[in-house]
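Journal club prep — side note

Before the paper discussion, L.F. wants everyone to see what a predicted structure for a comparable chain looks like in token form. Sequence:
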Amino acid sequence: MSTLQSEALTKIGDLAQTVGVTPRTVRFYEALGLVEPASRSAGGFRLYGPEQAERLRAVLSLKEMGFSLEEIRESRLLAREGRVAAEVTSGLRARASASAERLRGHISRLEGILGDVERTEQILSGCEGCDGKRFDQKCRDHWLERAGGSVPRFLKVVM
């Protein structure tokens, strides 16, 4: 079996496994014009090389950044049509800026959640070794005391 690390070509299933997607995803991206086979075998099988694997990884990275498949496809079409470089790069830059802003918002929300989780861990660490037989008002009061009067959302669920 050939690998994408060598210059040998490989079938769609091997490409998909190497990149971490399904063959169906590769076919879908191919239908959108985001990746093309390097060639076809005598039997008509799609064959891919390292360049196609790298392009597929790039598409996945852009998706992870928040780009839609349509945005990725449009950028690729502009470049393939030989459009003015400024037109292609300004569109990419605008999309990258919007993506960066979305990611900053996600990060901010996740940092807030992480802060709540860490405060919850800190508060609940005071329960270790507790010999209380039941969860009652004494537990709630202990949490409020350890939390400085305001418990994280995670603990409000059981209060």
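L.F.'s comment for the group: The chain has two domains: 1-64, 69-159. Keep this in mind when we get to the figures.
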